Every structure is written in C-alpha cells, then in structure tokens.
Write a sequence for this structure.
C-alpha cells in the first residue's frame, strides 16, 4: 500500500514525517513572500513544492496560474471551504484560475453518474464558491467529461510517460478506472500550460497531502512530455479540519460538519454537541483551563470564524487559563456562525444566475 | 502471457484450436449468406462472432456498420491489402463505414509522433485505400487524437467497466499506455453505435486473431455500459498471408512482401526470389509435382491475383501434377502483379486530391 491514497480515507499521520519523506518543503521558508492570509499565518497551509518559483515569476510580473478540482460528493461543508479560501487567495494574487469538475473521476471511482455529478457541482460547489467570492467569469471552469478533444487526447497520450510500476507504487492500484482518471487529472493540472492557454507558466495546485501522488506523477509527465513544453507544476499542502465530534470530518456523519446550507439552528446545535477541550467540572476547568488542541470549536474559530490574530490569541489565552468556559467559547462560535451563514446564504441565492449561466455554456 | 497479444508478434498457431478456445464460430456456418467473395470462398476469412446477427439485420433491411483501424507502421503491402478487400466487401454490402487512424495507439505503444503517424496514414494507407476502391467521402474517417470530446470522454469512462485483472489476463500487461490505447479502441469499435451516430446496430470488426482481445473486452464494455445502449460488436477473423520468403510477412524484411508502391521490376524480382513448393530438379518436379501449400507464389495468386476459382483450380492442378513448373507459376504471378501495380499506381495518383481534402478537413 502507498503511504497516502488519493481515493481513500484521509489519514495523513505526522505531517513533518511525510514532508521529509516526500520532499515537501515547509511553508515557513517562503512565508514572508506569501500574502497575509490566516491560512498561511496559522500554518494551515504548511508545505509546498517549488512555490518559490511561482512567487519569483509573480514578483517579476510574469504570468502564474492556479488549478483546483471539484470532486462532487455530498454536502459542501466548512472543511471544503478551506479549498475556496485558497482559491480566493490566489485570485487576489492575480493568478489565472482554472477549476475542473472531476465528473469523470467521480463516475469511474465512485459510480456517480455524470448527471448527478453535474447537479452536485452546481448546487453544492459552484453556488458556494461564487457566494464566497470566486469570480466565475474570470475562471476557466469545465467538466472533465467536456474538457475538449485536445485535453482528453493529451490525457490518453500521457499514459506513455507513466509505467504500471510507478502507478502501482504511487496509488497502490493499477485499476483502469483509476488510471484513466489519474491521466485526466494530469491534463487538468497542466491545462493552464497548454499552448492554447499561453504555454509554460508556474501553476500551483493547492491540495491536501493525500493528493500528493497526483502531483508527483503530473510533475513527471510535465518533465517527460515532448509534444510541447511544460514546467513542473507547483503545489501547496493544507491541513484538514477535524470533525466537530472529534476524529475526521466525514460526509457520512452530519454531526461532524457544518454544511454551508445548514440552517442557523442546525449549525448551533452541532456546535453545542461538539467535542471540546474543556474539563469535566467547572471547578477543574477553572483550575486547569481548556485544551485548545483538543477543542473542535476553537478549531472552527481558528480556521474560519476569527480573522483577527489578536482576537484569536485573546480567546485562546482566556480559554487556556480557565477564565473562559467551553459554553462561552461555544457562544462565540454560535454567534459567528449565525452571522456567517445568514450572509452566506443570502449571497448564495444571488449567485444562482451566474452559476446557471456557466452551466448553460457548458451544456 | 495471454494466448495472443495484439501489440506483439503475429503467431496464431492452430486456427481451429484457438477458435474452439476463444468461442469463435467457423465461417462455414454462415458462408451461404455471405457475399460471393474470394476471401470467404477460399476460407481466408475463417471465423466470426455473431456474424449471423449482422446478416439478419441486413436481410431485414436494417442498418449495419463496419469499423476498422489503420495502425500506421511502415510500407503498405499485399498483406495489408487483405484488410481493404474486406472493407470493400462490407462497402458493397451497404454497411456504414468507419475507419480510425490509430495515431494515439501508435504514439503510446510504438513511440510514433502524431505528425509521423499522420504522414504514414495519408501516404501509405489512405491513398492506397482510395485507389483500391474505398469511397472515402462516404466513410467516417478520423484520427484517434481528433476523435472528438465525446469519443475520448467515453473512452476514459470505459475504464470503469474493465478490471486490472481482466486487462492483464487479456493483454498480459497493465501498462497505462496500453490501457489508454485499448480504451480508445473500445470507443472506436462502438463509435458507429454512439447515439449521435444512430444508436445500437450490428457492427462488424474484421480482424486477425491477434486482435481478438480487443473484441472480447469491447463486447464486455458494450454489455456493461449504462449511459446509453450498445449491442455487442460482431467480428470476423482472417488468416494472414505468409511472407514471400516463407515465414511471416514483416515490414522489417522487404523481400518478404510486395509493397503497393514497389516498382514493377522490384516486385518481379521479389517473386523470382520467393520460396516455392517446387522440387529441386526438373525431373523430380515432373514426377512428384509442386506443393501449393508451401508455395508463396501460389499464395499470392490465391489471396490477390486470381479472382476466378476455376482458373485458380486449373493452375493448382497443373502445378501439383508437375505439368506446370515453378518458373511458369512465377511468370503468371509476375504478369499479374505488373498488371495490378501499373493500374493501382495510376489510381493511387488520382486518389491524391481526395485524400488531401479529407486530411484538410481533419486538420
């Protein structure tokens, strides 16, 4: 079995160990050249490959690009929002944006029909993306099943540059359905560099560690393909939020996540039911204080709901000292999530026409 | 290793044994319903899968189709002509014709660039096809690399319906470059049945036994694919001509074949140098007679140069009785090949504009 499996469960173990093993550099090396973004400041984006090359091109006024994929599965939740926050960061940096809806991959590896995939992408992803600030009309958005003749023909020819051994060592499997999907992913990753899209340019793919196998082989393909030039894609790696109930956030466990279409009441209830780092009794909490590293409510604040570092630090200090109780921490989170959801759901409705238009164009 | 390898050497061993093992029916079962064609009469087409279904549809006035592929390799020779003779038979029967130029497969499995593949397809194949009688403007001709978004997207999704075990058992390999090529081949084979091409219809693929693995898995894909309906493709199987020097006809051995662009002098010289079934001395030949089964010149006559059965039978009788000498048999073949090549090469020149037009349309 490979270390990490992009089609399997998220179980990335020790980040530092994996970074060392895979040859991923720490984000701290280049943090000062990155935007002032909480994902960077708080180490949620923790590593990269060749991001210095991306930043150098950007600093020299050259063209850079970002590509990410939508894997249509279930409800869009606060864990997924991390991806969008990264897209928005690259949008602000001026990168050309490419977003692929991985409907062929969903079809092959999870048996989701193209129609169902399409519906999920529109309802659960695009509407939320636009509501969160994505400028869809400035984005090269497409479904893999409609990526175009040249895209899909290149994907098929990329097979020449990857051996069965590499595939099996990297993915732990050589199933045709995975190989086809993987080859289309390499084409997705390299798409901003296609000749018709302006040729070679540093292109960042923001991913979780479990997607690194795709990055590694896409870099190999970029190096070996001779029909036209590619520069090796760049990547950044983000940590995952844990689920509200502790352990991993999972679509199959609705109490583990807050969906962006949950009602305010549902969301508040989930926060009330969340795992905290508070002590068992009031007296013990006052004496020992809360443990933020085991507090899923604090994690929600840190990842999404408290932008200001000083404010987050104040909350942490008060909670760790025992001055603030878990119930008080939850009140903060409930108030913030209400504010966020009300605003977001209003914007989500406003996003409908823009999304519909894009879908019509990609019929 | 699999019994036969569509990417490997042609070594089909005993036809009868393989037919039994693979479940291929003898052509003799349906011969009376087939056209009066020397390929059928002489058992060059020796087997089939489901050809009765194709004939029934045709007899009922329904639509039927034929698909075949061009594998760009070297010079086009008399062995390749067997494929064209079959295309022409199906053209006469009224089948819709589809011809794919397998440039992606040549790229992936033999490292031939798309440009080189394109050049070979035009010069060595299409011009000869048209000169031999193919109505190119009535044919759905395309390069795999330009098969279109829907074609290539289906090919990628066919991966869902074939397992790694099946691939390895069938092809003896699960290399990505072969898997990608194979999946595009399934789409090629099913193309006449795409909804945009009129939906399910009996579609025959005339092949050699070594291509049967593709047929078997394309039939599996046709059965399992649920996005739209396919009927299982039909196939016929042809024997291969042996090389003029005995053994197999091989592009790497120019003396083993007569190319359709060879000069008349070259062709005659190759016939003079061919392996015959004649006896060592005149006296012995007159006494024992020639052995047509080991006579490559007789094979050339039987496969290509003598249309009339009675005439071929007369030649056989005279040769086997010792009345006709090898040198006389060769004189017949040289005279016929001259007649054929002169006429063919004239038609080949006339074919140039039509081929150029099709290439321009598939730029």
């Amino acid at each position: 079995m490979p270390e990490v499996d992009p089609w399997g469960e998220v179980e990335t173990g020790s980040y530092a160990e994996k970074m060392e093993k895979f040859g991923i550099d720490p984000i701290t090396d280049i943090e000062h050249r990155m935007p002032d973004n909480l994902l960077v400041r708080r180490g949620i984006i923790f590593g990269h490959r060749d991001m210095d090359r991306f930043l150098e091109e950007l600093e020299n006024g050259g063209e850079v690009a970002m590509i990410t994929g939508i894997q249509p599965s279930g409800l869009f939740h606060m864990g997924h929002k991390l991806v969008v926050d990264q897209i928005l960061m690259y949008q602000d940096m001026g990168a050309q944006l490419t977003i692929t809806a991985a409907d062929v991959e969903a079809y092959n590896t999870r048996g989701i029909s193209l129609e169902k995939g399409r519906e999920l992408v529109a309802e659960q992803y695009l509407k939320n993306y636009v509501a969160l600030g994505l400028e869809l009309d400035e984005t090269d958005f497409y479904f893999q099943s409609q990526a175009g003749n040249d895209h899909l023909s290149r994907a098929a020819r990329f097979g020449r540059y990857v051996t069965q051994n590499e595939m099996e060592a990297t993915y732990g499997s050589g199933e045709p359905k995975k190989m086809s999907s993987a080859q289309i992913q390499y084409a997705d990753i390299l798409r901003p560099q296609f000749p018709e899209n302006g040729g070679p340019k540093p292109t960042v793919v923001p991913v979780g560690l479990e997607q690194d196998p795709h990055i590694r082989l896409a870099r190999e393909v970029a190096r070996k393909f001779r029909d036209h030039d590619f520069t090796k894609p760049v990547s950044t790696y983000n940590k995952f939020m844990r689920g509200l109930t502790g352990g991993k956030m999972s679509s199959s466990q609705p109490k583990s996540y807050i969906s962006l279409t949950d009602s305010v009441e549902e969301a508040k209830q989930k926060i009330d039911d969340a795992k905290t780092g508070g002590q068992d009794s009031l007296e013990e909490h006052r004496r020992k204080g809360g443990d933020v590293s085991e507090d899923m409510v604090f994690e929600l604040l840190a990842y999404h709901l408290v932008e200001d570092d000083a404010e987050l630090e104040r909350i942490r200090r008060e909670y760790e000292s025992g001055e603030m109780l878990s119930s008080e921490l939850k009140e903060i989170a409930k108030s913030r999530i209400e504010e966020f959801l009300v605003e977001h759901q209003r914007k989500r409705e406003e996003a409908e026409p823009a999304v519909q238009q894009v879908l019509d164009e990609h019929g």
About this structure: The longest strand of chain A covers residues 65-70.
